[in-house]
Amino acid sequence: MKIFHLSDLHIGKQLHHYSLLAEQKHILKQIVELAEKEMPDAVVIAGDIFDVPVPSAEAVALFDDFLSSLNDITPRIPVLLIAGNHDSAKRIDFASSILAKHDVYIAGMPPTQPEEQVKKVTLADEFGEVDFYLLPFVKPGYVRKLFADEIKSYDMAVKKVLEREKIDTSRRNVLISHQFYTASGKEPETCDSEIRMVGGIENVDTAVLEPFDYAALGHIHKAQKIGKEQYRYCGTPLPYSVSEAETEKSITVVELGEKGSSPKISRLPLKPLRQVRKLTGELEEILAAATEDMRGDFVSITLTDEVEAYHPKERLEANFDRILEIRIDNARTRKILEFSEEPLGDLSPYGAFCAFFKDMNGRELTEEEDMMLKEVLQAETEAEE
Ligand SMILES: [Mn+2]
Q1: How far does the centroid of ligand 1 lie from the alpha carbon of residue 188, in Å?
Q2: DSSP letter at 296?
């Protein structure tokens, strides 16, 4: 059984205020063409379909178009998808019972009531049946009514929800899930486009994936395995941050053979409409290296000129249509950065400002400035009381 594993489409996402709808339309079309060519037995989307819980009309229309184009392929390819943490479970679930008649299977919410189970879809190939478990993003609070014990963590929530399914491990099982999986404490490699997680509270250990022959995971934006070869994040179909500049995005293709055999896993590269590039150097070097090919790309520029360059913004804009940011990295800015990273210790606001002023201006405050500063701080303190 051949599976296309996708996740984190984030339809409607912007990159530094640039709409990515044209890029997303282009990449979704490419995915449909690859499906026509490769004819997988299923397309799996492991959450974060949209970038926000209430997506724009254009974003919804684009996803609708993608599903219909996939559905037009004959023989029909089933699509299995779940909600991620960016999606609204209820909105994703809209029309799901009608869509199921068209082989589009959607799970918006994990079970929340004692009589509910994880949505299961069974598909078959020459080796028999495969059970797909569609587990949308789980928070401990969503599933608390299912258990007598208090659900104290994400790990416990996912573990108990899966145990409750009494999965028959003599069958072939695939999990579709959207969580922050770690392997005995080892974290996956992240990018700047994911929401930062604090203190590891969202971690779910890959031990819970044991009953599955393949785990199609979403949430992490870089393609990688976690724990075992067959536990995979497929990553986003497009670069969604400067940290993903010039990294190759892909569809993860999984071929499940007989029960007990290791699945064959490969990656089908996706070619974006525009690249995300990171350019570093002196203004003149960057301008000299700019080609007509790069004009439309999204560029993050770091200027290293020690002497302030002449009209850098205007000159860069004449060569690049989509500038994400222009940073300056020279001795002066590095000094500022170094200073900001130095612990302030127990300096009072007054002491901290004096040190900052000296560093920026290379001198102490004059008597008059010192008095002004004290007045401002005094007024602040009074306002707080
Ligand atoms: Mn995501």
Answers
A1: 14
A2: T
CA–centroid distance, residue 85 to ligand 1 (Å): 7
The CA 123 to ligand 1 mean position distance, Å, reads 27
**355 Cα: distance to centroid of ligand 1 (angstroms):** 41
Please choose, from the candidates 116, 86, 81, the residue with its C-alpha nearest in 3D space to the C-alpha of residue 96.
Answer: 81
How many whole angstroms from 282 Cα to the centroid of ligand 1?
35
CATH of the domain at 166: 3.60.21.10
Domain annotation covers residue 337:
no
Domain check: are 214 and 306 in the same one?
Answer: no
CA 220 / ligand 1 centre spacing (Å): 6
Q: Is residue 231 part of a domain?
A: yes
Last residue of a domain, one of 216, 250, 270: 270
Amino acid at 102: H
Q: How far is the CA of 257 from the centre of ligand 1 (A)?
A: 29
Considering the domain boundaries, does residue 241 fall inside one?
yes
All residues at 6 or more sequence positions from 27 whose CB lies less than 8 Å from its CB, including other chains? 237, 238, 270, 272, 273
174 domain residue, yes or no: yes
Domain carrying residue 316:
276-332
pLDDT tens digit at each of 385 positions of the chain: 999 999 999 999 999 999 999 999 999 999 999 999 999 999 999 999 999 999 999 999 999 999 999 999 999 999 999 999 999 998 999 889 999 999 999 999 999 999 999 999 999 999 999 999 999 999 999 999 999 999 999 999 999 999 999 999 999 999 999 999 999 989 999 988 887 665 678 999 999 999 999 999 999 999 999 999 999 999 999 999 999 998 999 999 999 999 999 999 999 999 999 999 999 999 999 999 999 999 999 999 999 999 888 899 999 999 999 999 999 999 888 887 776 665 656 567 888 888 888 878 888 888 888 888 888 887 766 665 4
75 preceded by a cis bond (ω within 30 of 0): yes
Element holding 64 (H helix, E strand): helix 57-71
141 and 66 within one domain: yes
Total structural domains within the chain = 3
Question: From the CA of 9, how far away is ligand 1's center (Å)?
Answer: 8
Burial (Cβ within 10 Å: 0-12, 13-18, ≥19) of residue 180:
buried
Cα of 10 from ligand 1 centre, angstroms: 7
Query: Of 270, 287, 313, which residue constitutes the final position of a domain?
Result: 270
